[in-house]
Specification:
With 188 residues, this protein is of the alpha+beta class. It contains three helices and six strands. A six-stranded mixed beta sheet has the order 2-1-6-5-4-3.
Length: 188
Amino acid sequence: MTTHSPQAAPADPAARLDDDLRLHFEVQRLYTYEAQLLDQHRYADWLELLADDLHYWAPVRTNRLRRQQSLADGAAGEVAIFDETRASLQWRIRRFDSGMAWAEDPPSRTRHLITNVMVRPDEERPGHYVAESAFLCYRNRLEREVDLYAGSRTDLLRRDGDGSLLIARRTILLDQNVLLAKNISTFF
């Protein structure tokens, strides 16, 4: 369920619920469209959903004892699975299109499933929203290559000039700490 801070909440509870539902539906629709674009290999269209100053990050995760769980996820500046900008993602997509990305020729077939969406206004940045979601991504390539990725995403969303939501930050936490795939050419 979406929540608003007390300062930003409309006085009328029905109006607040209506705002929450609209925002939740808008974010859910954004994620559904994004998954469709990725599964259809429409990467140039996918880039349009990303802010120019995007930070797309998937830290490496380690197995830790319960008392050390705060150290399980890598920190900024440490080794990461992804530590990308919109420009570096653009470069990777151009490489896919060039025919020089051998790990994606022939291309993978993917299915992105996005669920458990929660969204709330970012209390530190007016006009921004924090959206959390869970994902399952199935990837198949050639006859026998099958990869399954599961995890969570935390996004910072903001509106662009026409009022559409853009993804400004994405942190991806894969549930696996050892990736068994031959390569990771999948976007999450």
